[in-house]
Structures are given as C-alpha cells and as structure tokens.
Amino acid sequence: MNIKIAIAYHKPATILKGENIFPLHVGKAISDVDLGIQGDNTGDNISEKNPLYCELTGVYWLWKNTTADYKGLMHYRRIFTLQKDYTYKNVILKAKIALRSLLSVFRPLNSYGMRIEYFAGTEDNYRKHANRLDNEIERILQQGTKIIVPSPEYCFLPVSVTFAPEAPHWAIQLIGEIAEESYPDFAEIYKQSLRKHYIYQRNMFVMDNTTYNEYCTILFSVLQAFEERSISNNYLKDIKEEKAVSRIIGYLGELLTNAFIQYCITKGKKAQALPLMIFDNSQEYAGKQISISDNNHP
Fold this sequence. Notes:
The protein is an alpha/beta fold. The protein has helices spanning about 50-55, 55-65, 90-105, 125-140, 160, 170-180, 185-195, 210-230, 250-265, and strands at about 5-10, 15, 20-25, 40, 70-75, 80, 115, 115-120, 145-150, 155, 200, 205-210, 270-275, 275-280, 290. It is built from nine helices and 15 strands.
C-alpha cells in the first residue's frame, strides 16, 4: 500500500520523516527561508497563495504532484496519535466537557469548545508517537478505513457562530451558495454542518485516493469561485490586500473540510477519528531532524 501523508512546515522546526509521512514546506514560493525539504512550489502548484490558503497549498500540491493509494495532511506541531489511555486527566476532561456542554445552555457566550488532545512534552516522546503512527497507519487503513480524521471539537454554540470571527457570515453564506450550484448534495451537508455543535478541525485527514480527488475537486473549485466573487460582489476590493481577512480562505477551507468529512460519513465511508498530539517545543529543537526511516521519499 502506497501512503503519502504530508506534514506541513513553514518555518524551522523538528522535521518528521518516515516510510509513510514526509515534510512539506508550504508557501515555499514566497518564503525567505530554506528548510531543506520538499517545497509545494514545484509542478502544478498554488504555493504563492499560501497567505490566503494556509496549509491548503500543500493539499493542492499533494493532489496534483503525487500518486498514492492514500494521501493526507498533518502539521509540524500537530500529528495524529494512537494514544488512547484513560488516565484520571482524561476522565476529568470528559467530565468537564459534559458539564460545560450542560452549562452552555445557560451561558453560551462563556463557552467556546473543548477537545481531547495530548501534549508530547519532549522531542523523544514526539518521536515515539510519530514512529508508532508511521508503523501502524497501514494496518489501520487495511481494516477498510477510508478516512482518518481528528477527534472532533465540541462547540457550545453552532459552528457558524463559533467560527464567525475568522469566517464572517457573508463569507460562510457565499461559500454555501457557490457549493449549491455545482455540488447540491454536498452543499446540503455543508449547511447542516454549520448548525451542529462539533467540528473536525485543523484541515487534517488521511483519505483514500478516490475520496481525496473528490475532496480536492470540490474544495478548490469552490474556493476559487469564492476568490472571484468576493471581489466582484464588492465584499472585498482585493482579497490579497485585505489584511483583516488575509487567512479567510484557510478558515473557510476548515469549514469545507469539516463538511466533506461529514458528507463522506453520510455516504457510508468508514471513518476513524484519532486524537491529536501537540508538540509546542518545536522551536527549541529547530534544525534537528526526527528521522523515522531512511527510505523516505515524497
């Protein structure tokens, strides 16, 4: 099984490599640093749009320039982890989620959301979990899993309200209108996902190639149309010059990714949610490399 999971980088940090995962410099075309890894500025690419699209320029590069049975994306500070322990901390966290979910009925504006995540703490621990994921990802996919997604974040307001600061109402609505024109079935799931109180965040996933192609076709055609219409409809004068919303397409991409995951689930595709592991000390180890396997090629 051929698996290619890109880990998006944009600045010096601990480089993760493996048999199935590889580092990818997103926004390489406009970067002033050389990370010494594969850039998203080769072949068919939209690398120069990274300030707008964020890590989605890496998603596009993977779509257009690689072949694999499964493709995916993680981040240099966040990876999927197979850790699923039930320590007292997790028990307390789950209890807090339940309690705050109940209290949010009375105090909705005081609650943003909660999710279960793990903190690596040290480079060695990060190495261990990345190594385990790299070694076991094929086994998971061989069990019929079509999509691997992050454990959802539970919001105490509808997703459309929770995301309002990053993705204003007009933008969320315009995306829905565009999707409705070409992908009505998906557009309906998109609208439903905005009313729900959970979201699959971070633009992180692993998908079989057929699903990945469908995802990218929908994602980038809708976002391209959004770029054009947000200007022609006078929502924005020039999206590249509007610093207040310079990352808006990346945020809208999260909403579309969340909707697509739910769209796939409604179509009966087997999905598995995995928690995330965060490594906040990446800058401390800048320049060091976590090499899981020497046989790593993007």
